[in-house]
């Protein structure tokens, strides 16, 4: 691997097998061919909506830790997007898939969603700004790349096409490129120990991305 490669390029290559395993998950395979069971997609939407609140909080903490004004603006705006705009998106899909407000309110976070939410918030609060950004990056980037893959494989008249297009579209990808650029700029100023911590945080979050889709497909709940 070239020493001139950026943090994000290195992280992607080091976790490529994990990304390929994510693409191969039954959830993503059946989302692409339109055969994903409706109740699985409902469960996924509920868990993802819960997750976005925690993701927004972690982004807000990262914004507060930013070492320059552009970083404050970028991640404060991303926090707002996660909590407001994407929750509105979820609301429209929940209406389309008949998930009532009561059903959402009474459905707790699954064990995996609970762990992922607490991981991001813990890292954001307790670790350095560079490490917090590295932990947040997989949610942006892996979603975008999964979206592209799903768009390429999606069947005609896929009932989930609207969802796929949201994350495979140009607007979301432009947002992801901006986040990657900031993470890479921060990493370029980091010492060796911080870079190692960034890579560990990225991998942990990428594993949790895999676990999130897997747990949604299995309709994961608490064992007792």
TrEMBL record:
Enzymatic reactions: thiamine + H2O = 5-(2-hydroxyethyl)-4-methylthiazole + 4-amino-5-hydroxymethyl-2-methylpyrimidine + H(+); 4-amino-5-aminomethyl-2-methylpyrimidine + H2O = 4-amino-5-hydroxymethyl-2-methylpyrimidine + NH4(+)
GO cellular component: cytosol
Pathway: Cofactor biosynthesis; thiamine diphosphate biosynthesis
Keyword line: Hydrolase, Thiamine biosynthesis
Record has Membrane as a keyword: no
Pfam families associated with the record: TENA_THI-4
Statement: the UniProt record of this protein carries the keyword Phosphoprotein: no
Gene Ontology biological-process annotations: thiamine biosynthetic process; thiamine diphosphate biosynthetic process
Family from the record: Belongs to the TenA family.
PANTHER family: BIFUNCTIONAL TH2 PROTEIN, SI:CH1073-67J19.1-RELATED
Protein name listed in UniProt: Aminopyrimidine aminohydrolase
Organism the protein comes from: Comamonas aquatica DA1877
């Amino acid at each position: 691997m070239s020493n001139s490669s950026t943090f994000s390029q290195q992280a992607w290559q080091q976790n490529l097998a994990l990304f390929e395993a994510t693409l191969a998950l039954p959830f993503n395979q059946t989302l692409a061919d339109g055969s994903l069971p409706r109740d699985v997609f409902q469960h996924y939407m509920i868990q993802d909506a819960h997750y976005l609140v925690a993701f927004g909080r972690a982004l807000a903490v990262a914004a507060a830790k930013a070492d320059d004004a552009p970083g404050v603006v970028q991640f404060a705006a991303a926090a707002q997007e996660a909590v407001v705009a994407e929750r509105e998106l979820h609301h429209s899909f929940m209406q389309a898939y008949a998930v009532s407000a009561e059903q959402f309110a009474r459905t707790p976070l699954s064990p995996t969603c609970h762990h992922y939410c607490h991981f991001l918030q813990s890292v954001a609060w307790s670790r350095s700004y560079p490490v917090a950004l590295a932990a947040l990056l997989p949610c942006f980037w892996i979603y975008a790349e999964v979206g592209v893959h799903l768009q390429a494989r999606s069947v005609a008249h896929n009932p989930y096409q609207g969802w796929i297009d949201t994350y495979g579209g140009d607007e979301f990808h432009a947002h992801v490129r901006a986040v990657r650029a900031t993470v890479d700029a921060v990493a370029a100023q980091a010492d060796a120990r911080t870079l190692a911590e960034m890579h560990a945080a990225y991998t942990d979050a990428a594993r949790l991305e895999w676990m999130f889709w897997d747990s949604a497909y299995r309709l994961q709940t608490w064992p007792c």
